[in-house]
Amino acid sequence: MSSDAYDAILTCRAVRHFTETPISDDDLQRILQAGRWAGSAKNVQPWHFVVVRNRARLNQLAECGRYASHLRGAALAVVLVTSPGRWVDFDAGRAAQNMMVAAWLLGIGSCIASLHDEDRARGLLGVPGDLQTHIAISFGYPLEDAPQTIEDLPREQVLAHIGRQPLERLVHWEAW
Ligand SMILES: Cc1cc2nc3c(=O)[nH]c(=O)nc-3n(C[C@H](O)[C@H](O)[C@H](O)COP(=O)(O)O)c2cc1C
Questions:
Q1: For ligand 1, atom 11, which residue shows the shortest CA distance?
Q2: Which of 56, 72, 87, 168 could covalently link to 41 via disulfide, CB atoms 3.0 to 4.6 Å apart?
Q3: Is the CATH code 3.30.310.170 the one for domain 15-144?
Q4: What is the per-residue pLDDT across 13-53, written as a single tens digit (0 to 9) for each?
């Protein structure tokens, strides 16, 4: 792996506040290709990507999640539409991470939004009832000196942890 890719993985953090700069079609293509090339269980590729750039629709999408207001200011969102299945969320996570890291390498920040009101999101986007809309991802250029808040709350109040657990706490050698 190139050191650029490794650095991108280690520095890619959630960005919830964006400038008004649009994302070019070329950059969007790169992001979507990175998602498309994610591996999935049995290579089923159980996903579609709905790109939302329309501001009114982004605002409506933000209403579908409890912590989804960052969608309002995004240059665009990619909604992951998946078929139900045992491995699908794992697969979709791989596609999401590919897109987010590819974007980060272009200087574009991103953040996941859980869509708690899935029916509303499905209706808003015209997604068939047998498919899932659990996750949207905001993309945009990071706003400098942005507040470190989530829904106007201090991050510490919403998140289980800030930063990452040390390896010593996570890694078990040979067995638990
Ligand atoms: C499955 C999943 C759902 C998430 N849902 C939301 C969300 O609804 N709103 C939000 O602001 N961030 C959401 N996030 C982003 C996490 O809060 C973020 O990945 C975590 O706090 C680490 O952020 P950091 O990389 O900036 O440290 C979600 C992340 C994942 C993996």
A1: 67
A2: 87
A3: no
A4: 999 999 999 999 999 999 999 999 999 999 999 999 999 99
